[in-house]
Write a structure and sequence with these properties.
- It holds the Pfam family DUF7311.
- This is DUF7311 domain-containing protein.
- The chain has 156 residues and is an alpha+beta fold.
- It has one domain.
- It contains 1 helix and 8 strands, in the order αββββββββ.
- The strands form 2 sheets. Strands 1-7-8-5 form a 4-stranded mixed sheet, with helices on one face. A 4-stranded antiparallel sheet has the order 4-3-2-6, with helices on one face.
- The protein is elongated.
- The model has no long low-confidence stretch (mean pLDDT 84).
Length: 156
């Protein structure tokens, strides 16, 4: 009987000691998945700008959609807020960014800067709130707004 009680106490102590490490792993996994989502948006913007020509009329503009998936489940930390915003980068340049807050911690911002494109990025009616527990679809249009501009808006 004493062995069973001691075994249970040791198991509870080990579990209590490992919970902070599990929470850190969940947060790191969620951050990595959100970084992957911002990379997917970057690639979609770059592909649209590189493979199309900008036009002045938005209804005729080249367009594509991208689905942003917020991590969820047992291995993901809870996301308090997730949004696509316009953020200022060095040199007063405005870029799109994925802004999120994980499990009550301070907010984080991940800039979305398509590398080889000369197009600017504009968040229409931003910031765009994204679902923290599922998928959000974004519409990307390449318009000529004094230069090639990718306008991002939310669908649905």
């Amino acid at each position: 009987m004493i062995r069973v009680v001691l075994t249970v106490l040791v198991a509870v102590a080990l579990l209590a000691a490992s919970i902070p490490a599990l929470e850190d792993a969940r947060t790191a996994t969620t951050e990595e998945q959100l970084d992957t989502e911002s990379d997917r948006i970057e690639r979609a913007i770059g592909g649209l700008a590189a493979g199309s020509m900008s036009v002045a009329d938005p209804s005729l503009a080249a367009r594509t959609t991208v689905t942003v998936r917020a991590p969820s489940g047992v291995t993901a930390a809870p996301i308090d807020r997730l949004a696509l915003v316009e953020a200022e980068q060095s040199g007063n340049e405005t870029v799109a960014a994925l802004r999120y807050r994980i499990d009550g911690s301070r907010g984080r911002t991940r800039p979305i800067v398509p590398g080889a494109t000369a197009a600017t990025v504009e968040v229409v009616d931003g910031p765009i709130a994204l679902r923290t527990d599922g998928e959000s679809r974004l519409d990307l249009r390449l318009v000529d707004d004094g230069g090639p501009t990718v306008r991002i808006s939310r669908i649905g």
